[in-house]
What we know:
This is Glycoside hydrolase family 16 protein. GO terms for molecular function: hydrolase activity, hydrolyzing O-glycosyl compounds. The chain is of the alpha+beta class. The protein has one domain: Sandwich (Jelly Rolls), CATH 2.60.120. It has helices at 4-12, 33-37, 56-61, 195-200, 229-233, 257-260, 274-277, 289-295; strands at 23-29, 38-40, 51-53, 65-68, 71-75, 89-91, 93-100, 103-111, 118-125, 134-139, 148-152, 168-171, 184-187, 204-210, 214-221, 237-238, 248-251, 264-272, 304-313. The strands form three sheets. Strands 1, 4, 5, 8, 14, 15, 16, 17 and 19 form a nine-stranded antiparallel beta sheet that branches. It has an eight-stranded antiparallel beta sheet with strand order 2-7-18-9-10-11-13-12. It has a two-stranded parallel sheet with strand order 3-6. The protein is globular, with a radius of gyration of 19 Å.
Amino acid sequence: MLTTSTIILTLSSLAPVLGTTTYKIKDTYIGPSFLNGFDHWPYSDPTHGRVNYVDQDTAIAQNLTFAEGKTFVMRADDTTVLDPNGPGRNSVRIQSKNAYSQSVMVLDITHMPDGCATWPAWWTTASDWPTGGEIDIIEYVNGQAPNHMTLHTSPNCTQPQSRRMMGTTTSTDCDASVNYNEGCGVQSSYSSSAGSGFNSIGGGWYAMERTSSSISIWFWPRNSPTVPSTIKAGSKTVNPGTFGTPDATFVNSQCDLNSHFEPHNIIFDLTLCGDWAGNNYPSNCPSTCVDYVNNNPQSFSDAYWDIAGLRVYE
Ligand SMILES: *[C@@H]1O[C@H](CO)[C@@H](O)[C@H](O)[C@H]1NC(C)=O
Ligand SMILES: *[C@@H]1O[C@H](CO)[C@@H](O)[C@H](O)[C@H]1NC(C)=O
């Protein structure tokens, strides 16, 4: 919800609106509130990973999902040798019950899944994909930093090569039906935005702002001197005008964001191999991707999310 002062400013159109929007806290997910605010998604992985997504009861019973105090952990099973003809490695995918449009999402995260074969993602999407659009905020494969930020849409949505952001454009057509659904991507400017570099510093904060004119993503490493005080404090209001230059931004000059993006649910998942991690399994990882997943449970001890909090502002 916009504040009164923002509405007056917007209606007056005399001052630039950019950077003046204050958002108020709508939903806070910390520890056990993830179990109420999100559903576990126990279905077959649409990206063909070597995983078996389990329901909430199973995830808790096997301690793949752990929610206590201010801690929320989601992991892949790291003890079971798999039958090559049986289901994939147990893992977790969760989806928020609430959906959001214009909003700011702030994630305080201390660890993300790392290692060969892993493909973790924090993203938002609508039920009618790709018509309702997809925003990938955290995504990387096989432990290879940095983070990649990507939109996937229906046709007629592209991005200019050059935008006001820190990261590097890797592709410009967001249309999911072309280029093998590569989407329009940005590679993070921070080597510590993913993987072992991220985990070794205790992670940090990610923020995503979605409006009808832009979608922007910021990352602040845990030890960064530039973390906005409102982000660090988990304040009741935030103003992206104080966030600095985004790591990635997507604009509406060649893409009508209103018609390409519907209200989105929030998803966290961890798949293994599959369309991206499996098809790009690097030569410095052992064996083949699927064999590695089947036979080396102990190698997945670092394949977990540890989330200190998710705050959604509107
Ligand atoms: C479950 O996972 C949490 C988080 O990693 C850990 O602290 C806890 O010791 C685990 N519990 C058991 C019974 O293994
Ligand atoms: C493509 O999008 C532009 C706005 O970005 C719009 O003016 C145009 O009509 C669209 N074309 C089609 C074929 O939908």
